[in-house]
TrEMBL record:
The lineage of its organism: Eukaryota, Metazoa, Ecdysozoa, Tardigrada, Eutardigrada. It comes from Ramazzottius varieornatus. This is Uncharacterized protein. The gene is RvY_19367-1. One of its GO terms (biological process) is maturation of SSU-rRNA from tricistronic rRNA transcript (SSU-rRNA, 5.8S rRNA, LSU-rRNA). One of its GO terms (cellular component) is 90S preribosome. One of its GO terms (molecular function) is RNA binding. SUPFAM superfamilies: Soluble quinoprotein glucose dehydrogenase, WD40 repeat-like. It comes from the Eukaryota. Residues 35-56 are annotated as: Disordered.
Length: 559
């Protein structure tokens, strides 16, 4: 029986004769047995040789923001409730693009904030502005996931954010058309400073002029240019209607030469002369434009647009015979669904959308596009010994909202690399923090299968895994093992705060790492409901290798 080739496998474990492969979409358990994939009667098995234990849903990309000094890219991802088809939770990933795109870490938001992330904007290399349906503007330290500042915007949900080039004033566009202005000169304070009057439409996009105190905003059928110092509307621009339907201008940007570019739901990308509020050039797409980005190089200015038709279009400003004009170049077909975010990040044009792929494009050739598949590092897999039957190991699965412990079946057949068969498995328990709305940031299970430790954004919990009383009657290793979790005492200091990383050594000692310290601990059960966690060592480390060596990984940003 042939085994289909897996693509993009992230982790592989070999507990005895079982191969556990963690792909981007599911965890597969494959048995390398020597019976040729036959059942007890010798007949060929009709079932697939793959057993899917976990099937995490891809996360759609909703927003992008780049910080040039630290080479950091913030990526907003959203999980969708499969039953109701609505956004379930939002997450922010921080990527480092200094040499090659790599995931640096994830920002863990509190439950009340991660239900909606509609806009992000960098304040500095470690501080990120976040807004959403809750109507608050949050200033978050991405390295510690801690809230550094908070302010309420006027009138409902905040749909867009924009920080001026001087980085001392933040604009937030709201549901009822108000534009709230905040002073952000102090890195830990967000102070409300003013309000631009509404024009009867939700503000969908904002952009500042490079040198002047001018702000452009967009909404339903309009593009507005504001003089922020005078707190007055300077001019209004109206994209043409598509029949009797008025368009919604979903994205707007200010170019370095003072030109305003807008993209609307009719598929029009329009270049505006702000002095006369008239269009300079216009390009039409098959479907609505959802995102715009621009770049400037010695070769000229380029504007990129993308949206519902999944095509990324490029418009370049050319200069021929003393006159300049905008010309559309070849389109890029690199996405399969809606493109919701575009961002120029150094040498890359970054895009993302409903297909969950994060694309890093290149100006020279489309073939050099780097494709980052969805669900990268979104699931953690660990294997531990079964308490009662060593031939049926435990499998720990961690995703963003829960922990699961599964039991694999016992197989006594000899190893054969030519044949594969499905491994029976069963779920023993599922664990969530709080009411299921807390994000689990780290987890670990001891090699002996005795201890389970997990951390959320608030605290760290330790559990002892014990068999239920009925397990004393179990004699067959093929039977399901019933286990219980006994919470450990919270008296130990290392379990009073959240941590960034957890792992167990081969000797069963726990390594706990937060943003500043790492503890090497030994867990010991004293009595029912109590435990001791003695700190053996404390170093500047974040992961433990089998044996005697520790690995330290830290990011230090250039001044």
């Amino acid at each position: 029986m042939e085994f289909p080739v897996l693509s993009s496998v992230r982790q592989i474990f070999f507990p005895r004769r079982r191969r556990i492969s963690f792909s981007l979409y599911r965890v597969l358990i494959i048995d390398n047995s020597g019976d040729g994939g036959r059942n007890e009667e010798g007949d060929e098995e009709a079932e697939s040789p793959r057993s899917a234990v976990s099937d995490p849903k891809p996360r759609a990309i909703q927003g992008l923001a780049y910080e040039s000094k630290s080479y950091r890219l913030a990526v907003v991802k959203c999980t969708v409730d499969a039953q109701e088809n609505i956004p379930a939770a939002y997450f922010v990933e921080i990527w480092n693009l200094r040499d090659f795109p790599c995931l640096e870490f994830k920002v863990t938001l509190a439950p009340e904030w991660r239900q909606s992330v509609e806009a992000i904007c960098w304040r500095s290399s470690v501080l990120l502005f976040i807004s959403g349906m809750h109507g608050q503007v949050l200033l978050v330290d991405v390295e510690t996931s801690r809230l550094r500042g908070q302010a309420a915007a006027v009138s409902g949900p905040v749909w867009c954010l924009s920080l001026n080039p001087q980085k001392n004033r933040l604009a937030a566009g709201t549901e009822d058309g108000y534009i709230s202005l905040f002073d952000v000169e102090n890195e830990e304070l967000v102070i409300y400073s003013g309000l631009l009057e509404p024009k009867g439409s939700r503000i969908l996009s904002l952009s500042w002029h490079l040198t002047k105190p001018l702000l452009v905003s967009s909404g339903r059928g309009r593009v507005w240019l504001w003089d922020v110092d005078a707190m007055k509307l300077r001019t209004e621009m109206r994209p043409p209607k598509h029949g009797n339907i008025e368009s919604s201008v979903s994205s707007v940007i200010f170019l370095r030469n003072g030109t305003v570019v807008s993209g609307d739901t009719t598929g029009a990308t329009i270049f505006w002369d702000i002095s006369h509020a008239t269009p300079i050039a216009s390009f039409k797409s098959r479907s609505g434009v959802l995102a715009l980005a621009h770049s400037q190089s010695p070769d000229g200015i380029s504007v990129f647009s993308a949206g519902i038709d999944s095509v990324i279009s490029e418009m370049r400003l050319t200069n021929k015979q003393g006159s300049s004009s905008w010309v559309r170049s070849l389109p890029r077909y690199i996405h399969s669904h809606d493109v919701r975010a575009l961002c120029r990040a150094g040498k890359f044009l970054v895009s993302g959308g409903q297909d969950s792929y994060l694309m890093f494009g290149n100006d020279v050739s489309i073939k050099q596009t780097i494709k980052i598949p969805p669900n990268t590092n979104s699931l953690t897999v660990a294997v531990a010994r079964n308490l009662l039957h060593a031939s049926t190991p435990f499998l720990l699965l961690q995703n963003s909202s829960k922990l699961e412990i599964w039991q694999l079946s016992s197989q006594q057949n000899s190893f054969s690399a030519d044949n594969f068969r499905a491994v029976p498995f069963c779920q023993l328990l599922s664990l969530t923090f709080g009411k299921g709305n807390e994000c689990i940031t780290a987890s670990a299970i001891s090699p002996s299968g005795e201890w389970l430790v997990a951390s959320s954004h608030r605290l760290t919990k330790a559990y002892r895994i014990v068999p239920s009383k009925a397990e004393s009657l179990v004699k067959n290793a093929h039977d399901k093992v019933d286990i219980d979790l006994v919470p450990a005492s919270k008296s130990t200091d290392i379990f009073a705060l959240p941590v960034d990383s957890l792992t167990f050594s081969e000797e069963g000692r726990l390594v706990v790492a937060d943003s500043s310290e790492v503890f090497h601990c030994k867990l010991k059960w004293i009595a029912s409901g109590e435990h001791s966690a003695s700190v053996v060592d404390k170093r500047n480390i974040c992961s433990l290798f089998p044996g005697e060596f520790f690995l330290c990984i830290r990011y230090r940003l250039a001044d």
